[in-house]
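Input.
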Amino acid sequence: MLDVFFEDREDAGAQLAAKIAVEEPAKPVVLALPRGGVPVAYEICKRFRAPLDVLLVRKIGAPANPEVALGAIVDGAQPQIVLNDDIMAACGVTPRYIDVEARRQLAEIDRRRRMYVGNRMPLPLAGRNVILVDDGIATGATVKVALKALRRLGCGSVLLAIPVAPLEVISELRADVDRIVCLHMPADFRAVGLHYRDFHQTSDEEVIEILALARGSADETPA
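Output.
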């Protein structure tokens, strides 16, 4: 039987917040990968009275097989496109295809951001200490793209905060981040949800409510 480490996402977030407090990050910005990362991140933003925002990532799929990722686009004040040149060459895609598909995915990102936060602009990240949060990692593909995009934005530092993930994935991500806080890296990892007692799907309504609560409690004075 697999170990259950967390009652729910709020419990995971509280445990992460306590661990991160040892690092003493100065005036951080907390970014959550929605939807499941949002309730985890909220516990961290409460601990540090930090602003909370979502970081939306959309895959750019190949023409013949959308499941094959040519890259991804990451939202923010300056949206970033991260491409896999080897896969692009193998698929023979044109720059025009990438441009059209990136615009389509950016439109979907914009739609989702408006649903979550209305007309509020993404938080500026240049020079800020960023804490990127999800409820767990399986393959690490989305997180890796997000980290590469954050690097391009000139963040002061990036700390990846994850409740549970495979050891080999965490090892691969270390080169893309300043610090990683991962509470559990079980040898018998199979799926994130198996290590939670309650792992119900986070709804859009929950995300909207949590982000509204976070805006009411954070100190957003620039660092």
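The mean pLDDT is 92.
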